[in-house]
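pinging the channel bc i need a second pair of eyes. not urgent but kinda urgent?? the chain im working w is below, pasted from the shared doc
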Amino acid sequence: MTPFAAFCNLVHLLGSSTKTNEKLQALTSYFATATNADKVWVIALFSGRRPKRLVSSTTLQLWCTEITALPLWLFEESYHTVGDLGETIALLLPPPIGTPTCTSLSAFMLQMQALQSADETEKKTFIIANWKALNTNERFVFNKLMSGGFRIGVSQKTIVNALAKTIALDAAVIAHCIS
């Protein structure tokens, strides 16, 4: 499993759990194996410091309909039923083939930052290459990152406690460092 896949699994676990202890355990397990660069991005993303949107929702929708050859009305009906653009796109794209352009969260985030000033063709190439290579769960998270709509239901206290369990620092020190 790639580091990005591990991050996507973490997002799925956190999004589907309603129990604080399950979220704490998932974060603790993730922090125990993640690279320092990925840990920093997780802390940033989970505390609301997400990057700017790389492309508009309309553009993502257009590119998805190009790849899938779905009529726009059918895409819109699917979106209406699912209720989330990132999830709709992830579900509609064909099965994955190939290799993603990046294998870690930090690599994806750095690539996104580099593409902020790129033209639409470069952005489209990056996004479509990854859509083709990522599985449905990974595409969903990738889409949320690309669209600037990444939000996760985990408290800062839970993040701090998970970090405190995996590194040799007091929770109060960690809380001070990330606030």
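so The mean pLDDT is 92. and Residues 3-16 form the longest helix (14 residues). — does that match what u expected or am i reading it wrong
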